[in-house]
Design goal:
Distance between the termini: 32 Å
Radius of gyration: 30 Å
Number of helices: 13
Strand content: 35-45%
Structural class: alpha+beta
Number of strands: 43
Largest sheet: 8 strands, mixed
């Protein structure tokens, strides 16, 4: 309680004492003259008056206390930045392992790991030009004599765009624009720091940094036809890969992708705003449809010749990764079949183009693209992660393709490999070992022994190791603690607190006492699920509350995590302040609990996820403090799909549902994602249709709100259009909001405030 609230409470308590004494004195004065006739009546009268006054006084105390706790508003969340967390941007370790750089609005600064203090500003943007454009990212070359600065980013899709690049010399403090021939994509230094490579207009270029002369490597790039040096829409979205060129370690060659998307069907989005709306058309391979034909090529800088590798049958496979080995003449690439249940690592001779196998993994469902695939500097081994024993673990393999050993073991998933210290033969990693909701830091040696936990409290850790693994910067949070940035040595000892967001934590306390509480529930199908709740601060188990469920549920994802929740967290707290209990449940298919729990949804996406959401809602409905007639559900993207399906299949459970940018049939979604989990529609039509919300609209009983952006290049507006038509044809009433030209994230200006105002009003009216 803050001081103002404490003083209010003391003041009201003293008033209560004074007034109680007054009433008692009045009663005593009345007793002598009328005692025999009126004693029992007066006593009862006094007692009633006292109870009434105490109730009023207590309510007053509560109101004043609540008044001291500020109410969260949507403007706080989406307009004022009231709950914005402070962070550290673009952390890059320097080669000495003793210093790191960060990006600020005004400069690129050099800091010491040992002290956390700024050593110097490597580049002050106003010193270059008082009107120098805002810098969005930076790179250091290998010998740390030059900076590559990017600005003026213009998005193409959700994860890609074009920028202007500037070359800043750290020695003579000069800056020059890298190219006057138009914005570039993905510009990157060569390992020797003498050149850069970039993509412009779907062609690959090399720039000599001494002369700024550009060499065009490819000439056939064309929008919606041929892509060189980067990836098509679906690789970018589903394989998380946009940069499609890779310098060899000796800077003498570049390996790159070539996508021929000529045969891929086009999707059209009408962009509104002009007298005649503009059509934007791009290639989007939907489930069961043709993909780009993908080649891998190697360009030799000295000869100017390009070698095309034999990557196999291009029409029914994917090449999701390319990586040079420690040998500058050996390139490795990853190949997956179309159903993604077989993954191979192959080696290619960069001189002859000959291909040899290195590693193969198969599964009766699907194989995840490994997040870790690192060739060690000894040239003898590589590190890779795999779920082949049922959990995501770290393995070491030799360059002969033979397994050296499994390094981590146990009934838990490794989340990420954060650093590899080859000299000390140690691997630093985060995992869900203590609980699926936590992501904590460990170290283990190359033999799989001496595993040590380095993080000191439960929560979620995101780790950035410096060169040589002597230090790391930790970004820690838990469910009710905003991000804390600290520097540690490699034994886990904290050296410096860089940012504790103490001001934000105090502000969180000023705006109420609602917190996340974690637990586990067991459904009627005997499935144990993790959940969290956010209850009103004055929660009373003798009262009944409406429940508002938040879901995502997509394969491998988690929402029930012991981590800071950002914007939706405050929206959920705001709803709790208005008397709602907010619930989030991770059902089957979600991550952190091993391959079996995640992959049970294979070939029937939506089935078990929906069963678990409905089962969880029924579990809460049985609680005496829940109003079982007032349970609602909300989700975005996959969550919008799941909330739509839940109010249809669970029409006796859910009173209201909000679906933002929902998939309504997987037939409309991209093939890499959808076929990974459902196979092709030709192979598994039931898997596509038996859990499509479009086929269950007649079952709608509750209140349904659907929201979509017409410029959504990911989950197309077509999904909402068909859902709207199906509801109309079934004569079902519903509500809808369309955001013209907005993409899958539905943001920009006041858009998010508008959207959350809409959803909040819907909840207050319908739940």
């Amino acid at each position: 309680m803050n001081n103002d609230n404490a003083l209010c409470s003391i003041f009201i308590a003293n008033i209560i004492i004074v007034w109680e004494n007054y009433f008692f004195c009045v009663f005593l004065q009345k007793v002598p003259t009328e005692f025999h006739e009126h004693t029992s009546t007066d006593i009862q009268h006094f007692t009633d008056m006292r109870k009434t006054f105490l109730a009023i006084a207590t309510t007053t105390v509560c109101c004043l206390t609540a008044f001291g706790q500020k109410q969260i508003t949507l403007e706080d969340i989406w307009a004022r930045g009231t709950f914005s967390a402070r962070g550290i941007s673009e952390i890059n370790s320097m080669t000495d392992g003793e210093h790191y750089c960060v990006l600020t609005r005004n400069s690129v600064d050099k800091y010491s790991y040992k002290t956390g203090e700024k050593v110097e500003s490597l580049c002050v943007f106003s010193d270059i030009d008082a009107k120098f454009p805002r810098v969005e990212s930076y790179q250091l070359n290998a010998n740390e004599t030059q900076l590559l600065l990017s600005s003026g980013f213009e998005p193409l899709y959700r994860h890609s765009g074009v920028s202007d690049y500037y070359l800043y010399d750290l020695n003579n403090k000069t800056c020059k624009k890298l190219s006057e021939n138009g914005k570039q994509r993905l510009t990157q230094f060569s390992p020797d720091g003498k050149k850069t490579a970039f993509v412009r207009d779907n062609n690959l270029y090399i720039c000599n940094l001494e002369t700024l002369k550009e060499t065009q490597v490819t000439f056939d790039g064309k929008f919606n036809a041929i892509i060189n040096g980067t990836t098509d829409w679906v690789y970018e979205e589903e394989f998380s890969i946009t940069k499609g060129f890779y310098w060899s370690p000796d800077s003498k060659k570049i390996a790159f992708y070539r996508f021929d998307e000529s045969a891929v069907k086009q999707y059209n989005m009408q962009m509104w705003g002009e007298l005649y709306p503009e059509d934007y058309t791009f290639k989007y391979p939907k489930a069961g449809e043709d993909n780009s034909v993908v080649d891998v090529l190697i360009y030799d800088l000295s000869s100017g010749k390009t070698l095309k590798l034999d990557v196999g049958s291009q029409n029914d496979q994917y090449i999701p990764r390319i990586k040079w080995t420690q040998n500058p003449n050996i390139l490795s690439f990853m190949r997956m079949n179309r159903l993604q249940n077989k993954m191979e690592l192959l080696l290619a001779d960069a001189t002859t183009g000959s291909i040899s196998p290195l590693y193969t993994e198969e599964n009766n469902t699907y194989v995840e693209v490994p997040e870790t695939w690192i060739f060690l500097k000894d040239g003898k081994n590589f590190i890779i992660n795999s779920e082949k024993d049922g959990y995501n673990h770290i393995y070491m393999y030799g360059m002969d393709g033979k397994e050296v050993r499994q390094i981590t073991k146990g009934n838990f998933d490794v989340a990420a490999v954060c650093g590899i210290d080859e000299k000390a033969k140690r691997i630093y990693f985060t995992s869900h070992e203590s609980s699926a909701i936590n992501t904590e830091l460990y170290v283990i040696d190359f033999t799989g022994k001496k595993k040590t936990k380095l993080s000191d409290k439960p929560g979620t850790y995101r780790i950035n190791f410096g060169s040589g693994c002597r230090y790391y910067i930790s970004n820690f949070s838990d469910a009710n603690t905003p991000p804390q940035f600290t520097i540690h040595d490699n034994k886990g000892k904290q050296i410096v607190m860089l940012e504790d967001n103490a001001t934000l934590k105090q502000r969180m306390a000023e705006y109420g006492a609602e917190t996340k509480e974690f637990g586990q529930l067991t459904t009627a199908e005997n499935i144990t699920l993790n959940y969290y709740t956010i209850k009103p601060a004055d929660f009373d188990s003798c009262k009944q509350y409406p429940v508002f469920m938040y879901v995502y549920g997509g394969p491998g994802h988690q929402q029930v995590t012991n981590s800071y929740g950002y914007s939706d967290y405050y929206w959920h707290r705001m709803l709790a302040q208005h008397g709602y209990i907010v619930v989030c449940v991770d059902g089957r298919g979600t991550g952190g609990r091993g391959a079996e729990f995640k992959k049970v949804t294979y070939k029937q996406l939506g089935k078990y996820e929906c069963i678990d959401v409905i089962g969880a809602a029924k579990w809460f409905a049985a609680k005496p403090w829940v109003n079982a007639e007032r349970i609602g559900i909300f989700g975005w993207s996959f969550g919008g799909y799941l909330s739509s399906l839940a109010i249809l299949k669970g029409n006796d459970v859910f009173k209201a549902a909000i679906a933002v940018a929902p998939v309504t049939t997987w037939r409309y979604y991209d093939n890499i994602y959808t076929e990974r989990f459902l196979q092709r529609p030709q192979d598994n039509p039931e898997g596509y249709d038996q859990n499509s919300p479009l086929n269950f609209v007649k079952q709608l009983k509750g209140n349904y709100l659907i929201v979509h952006g017409t410029g959504d290049d990911n989950v197309h507006f077509q999904n909402a259009a068909d859902m709207i038509s199906a509801l109309e044809n079934a004569n079902k009433q519903f509500e809808m909001r369309i955001y013209p030209n907005k993409n899958h994230s539905i943001y920009g200006g006041y858009t998010r405030l508008n959207l959350y105002t809409l959803m909040t009003d819907f909840i207050f009216r319908k739940l």
